[in-house]
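I'll show a sample.
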Amino acid sequence: MKYVFLTASEASSIDFSKVLQGSASTLRYNNDNTKTFVKFNGDTPSFLNGKTILNRSEILEELKKEEWKSEE
């Protein structure tokens, strides 16, 4: 599985038929709702060209940062 971070404003450009999330309502956002990410298998969807692709261990490291921790 591969992962790509996007800004919240880029969420409207996501082709949900090409990623593993089903819709905008299933995206996870950081604490201030400025970033999200998508996950996919196989070839990189064209709307993600030029973006940094992370593997599982890399995404898990990023999600440990304070900006992603739940405030609950």
Notes: The longest helix spans residues 56-63. The chain has a mean pLDDT of 95. DSSP finds one helix and two strands in the chain. The chain has one domain: 2-67.
